[in-house]
Amino acid sequence: MEMCWQIQRPASLRPVLHQKGRLKINTCIGFLLPRPKSCSFSSLASLESQYNSNGFLHQITASADFSRKKQGRMAASGPKSSAPTGFGRPTTVGSDQKRTPKKHGEKDSNATSKVTNEVSGIIRKLPEAKADVQKQSSVVFGERNVLDRSETEDDALLQLKLKVERENLRRMEIEALAEKTLARGDRMFVYPLTAKPDEDIEVFLNRTLSTLNNEPDVLIMGAFNDWRWKSFTRSLEKTWILGDWLSCLLHIPKEAYKMDFVFFNGQSVYDNNDSKDFCIDVKGGMMDKVEFENFLLEEKWREQEKLAKEEAERERQEEEKRRIEARKAAIEADRAQAKAEAQKRREMLQQALEKAVVSVRHVWYIEPSNFKGEDKVKLYYNKSSGPLANAKEVWIHGGFNNWVDGLSIVEKLVDAELKADDSKSGDWWFAEVRVPVRALVIDWVFADGPPEGALLYDNNSRQDFHALVPLTTPEEVYWSEEEDLMFRKLQEERRLKEEAMRVKMEKTARLKAETKERTLKKFLLSQKDVVYTEPLKIQAGCPVTVFYNPSNTVLNGKLEVWFRCSFNRWTHRLGPLPPQKMEAADDGSSHVKSSAKVPLDAYMMDFVFSEKEDGGIFDNKDGLDYHLPVVGGIAKEQPLHIVHIAVEMAPIAKVGGLGDVVTSLSRAVQELNHNVDIIFPKYDCIKYNFVKELQFNRSYHWGGTEIKVWHGKVEGVSVYFLDPQNGLFQRGCVYGCSDDAERFGFFCHASLEFLLQGGFHPEILHCHDWSSAPVSWLFKDHYTHYGLTKTRVVFTIHNLEFGAVAIGKAMTFADKATTVSRTYAKEVAGNSVISPHLHKFHGIVNGIDPDIWDPYNDNFIPVPYTSKNVVEGKRAAKEELQNRLGLKREDLPVVGIITRLTHQKGIHLIKHAIWRTLKRNGQVVLLGSAPDPRIQNDFVNLANQLHSTHGDRARLVLTYDEPLSHLIYAGADFILVPSIFEPCGLTQLIAMRYGSVPVVRKTGGLYDTVFDVDHDKERAQAQVLEPNGFSFDGADAPGVDYALNRAISAWYDGREWFKSLCKTVMEQDWSWNRPALEYIQLYHSARK
To answer: How large is the average pLDDT for residues 924-947?
Structure first.
């Protein structure tokens, strides 16, 4: 209901105010009262237009706006409350309760609902207000002031009357609503009837009809938006309405779309609308349920940002504290070292002081005889007194304080041309010498030439010459000063070292971050022939368009393509989005597209494609589904717990590539914020110097023996070492025992028992090759129903040549299986132990550890380098390699071979490549050994032959030498890998990390990682890469010649192009950055 007042008056108010009897105010109260005959509803509009400046309200309503304006003038004190600011507890006027302080920018909602008292008060104050107006207008300034006084007086009276009428109208509307509510049998209503955001609302409850009818105190408790926003508790007060009506005034926040509440007595008696709670919809707001969810997420994100900043500040302060403590310790250490060094020098110098004299008759003397540091003196030498009598030249090679700074005085002596007398007989020569500033003793010898060309010396019969400096600082003062100088020197050396280390660490971190960013971008672009997004980097809270090319998938030729999407690996709170029919892309390609809004709490976007809205044929990426990372979200992916069970691990017990993979994959997955543990046998041949924080963890009994468990860190990864007391792993080796199958079978079963008894609940068990293959079936047979119900098994084949039976059984029981490259997966797909399980078999290329293989931080090479100075770095490494191996120091192409000498590695091709390289005037270096003695002896004979005939251009080192391998990777121009088969291969990846160009045979992982510069441009482009090497197909000499000839010719004929190729291969990322992402996807798919 809306009621308006209008006042009709002439165009000029002044004459009307002089004749007050002519001013007539008529009121009308909607449907509640009969309309008086004198009422004019058009008069107020005229008044509104004419008296804007006189403070009249333009329109007065009994709507929500009317109520809000009224209550803004009638605020009263209210009690403090735990509810958010903005909710007022109505109290009677004159209450002794204190007002709750308001926060900045919030409205005061503590307006009274006891309107009777206020109205009565207003009426009682009318004479006072009139008297006050008259008093304020008592000062007259001419005739105009008389008129102003009259206008002010009437305006004040008019406003007070309007206020009274408005309140009467509001009361009448509320009374009418109360009657209707009772008539319906209800006990609660709100005024106004439509709740709006950022406005006040009054809640009325009839206590008589409530379960609280016998309670003296009634409170309202509630919140907004399904009890999720701004809770409140307020007391209800008695109203003027007939019957036992109570009320409370509340303010609705602008974020509300719903208000939820119950009534209670402040203790345990409730009126909760028959357990359904009371609720009121809020209309006209800026938020619905979805928008409010996003709002909450934004609030959560802001809170997280705040907490992150606070945590960062705490860490900064802690780091500063640690830095200060370290600085104090460093100062103490430097002072102690300076003191010790000074004492050592003092003791050594004492010997020289005992030998020092001011002159030796007929041999040498100094003029003037009294001198001090920094003085210039003449040192005379009798050439005829010693072995230099016949020398054409005489030089002094000198230092001071027992040669503390080495050679610091070098001067040529000249003939003194002294007149002969008894004291100076002989052949005297002299040199002018500056005495070192801190010298107590001058030390020297005489020679027949400068330091780089002297052959004959007079060194005082190997005692050297020592002259005492007569004028020096007192001894104790001198050594105190020396100690301080040493301390300052040590401090400066430390500062420069720390600064260089800091700069290097920052650059290393920046390079790693840039590499990861490039790799992620290439990872996303590498799928572009099937799927990509715009924008490429999906941002939380923003729209994204997915482009899909069905022509390259199982949906090729389908009339329709439907897009099915969700987030956070299909676990998002909103569930999957409705299927969308994709439409043709605008670029005229075969792609189709569909768009979606990414939630703020998304960290992963998940989707598949189908031919129909209700299903049909699906493209789900061979069971893995499509997953793309989302950046900028407020939610983070919950970490997985992955446990590797393996028998090799680099660098503590490495035999082959398996050990590298276990360590490097674990580190890479851990860097993606997942939890990784490794269970490993405690061999007696472990390199314990690589194990940090090793300590006893626990022990348990299984398999008839006690098993002691130790825990430590290897390369930053948590490792549990199992040490059964039956001696199975006290053999001095990893492999090579006749009972290896029994040893490792026991270890697998003991590992599962350790997990069970230790209360571990990993999401993933990852086992490797035949040696830990039993984990897969032992787990399913004995442990999947005993506490490890949510665990899934992933099995990786590193080499199918060993333990095919165990591998086949593991393939049967594993939830997912992988091998170490896509091409090798295709090559073994026809094998009988693999073919039945192709639906769960995937190829993922191995990576290398960029921290272990890092030319910028490699202590085994002479000059650290990156792709920016790769030419200079490799030149220095080549020179060092030639020097160390005794090769001719000449700018020639160097072919490096680093391998185990087995038939798998193509040893017949290696031999041929050596001779081909020498024929092309190159140098060749081989590092490796053969487990087969016959092959080892064969290569020993070859080495003897090469070293005798081509010793300046060929060197075979038939052992394993870790530092030398680093130098070969850095110093060689090419690395040859002619394997007959190669599941993955790490040699070619390490070579490219050091800027060496790989020359490989097209097989397994070699084919997946090396793209021929002449033949594989399109294949490389599909992987968002550039060609990076030379390759060949056959397993014979012509195949090797084809690749090697092209490589060496490119080195000779196109040096600038070849240098750019070195830079290109070095910038490619063959670390675990991308494979780790693929393994994470595989782990999640295993859990589906």
So the answer is: 96
Cis peptide before 651 (omega within 30 of 0): yes
- Residue 421: exposed, middle, or buried by beta-carbon count in 10 A (0-12, 13-18, 19+)? exposed
The pLDDT-based confidence of 904 (bands split at 50, 70, 90) is very high
Separation between Cα atoms, residue 628 and residue 612, nearest integer Å: 23
CB distance 821 to 986 below 8 Å: no
CB 782 within 8 A of CB 812: no
Single out the residue of 456, 439, 464 nearest to residue 377, CA to CA. 439
Q: Which two tokens stand for residue 569?
A: 């690996």
* Length of the chain counted residue by residue: 1088
Ramachandran quadrant class, 277 (left: phi over 0; alpha: psi -120 to 50; beta: rest): left
Given a contact cutoff of 8 angstroms between Cβ atoms, the answer to whether 380 and 416 are in contact is yes
Which of 245, 243, 277, 240 lies closest to 261, judged by CA? 277
> Considering only CA atoms, which of 854, 676, 659 is closest in space to residue 766?
676
Peptide bond into 535 cis (omega under 30): yes
**Following CA atoms 809, 815, 817, 822 in sequence, which dihedral angle do they give, to the nearest 10 degrees?**
140
The model's pLDDT over 102-113, given as tens digits with 9 standing for 90+, comes to 333 343 433 333
The residue whose two tokens read 């304080």 is 401
> pLDDT for 139-174, tens place per residue?
444 445 555 667 788 888 889 899 999 999 999 999
Cα–Cα distance for residue pair 748/774, rounded to 1 Å:
6
420 secondary structure, DSSP code: P
Say if CB 525 and CB 532 are below 8 A apart: yes
* pTM of structure: 0.73
Q: If 0-12 CB within 10 Å is exposed, 13-18 middle and 19+ buried, where does residue 675 land? A: middle
Count CA atoms within 13 Å of residue 734 on its CB side.
Answer: 16
The C-alpha angle with vertex 475 and arms to 472 and 477, in degrees rounded to 5, equals 95
Cβ atoms of 13 and 151 closer than 8 Å: yes
State how far the Cα of 538 lies from the Cα of 531, in Å rounded to an integer.
Answer: 13
111, 283, 526, 1074 from 888: Cα distances, Å: 98, 89, 44, 41
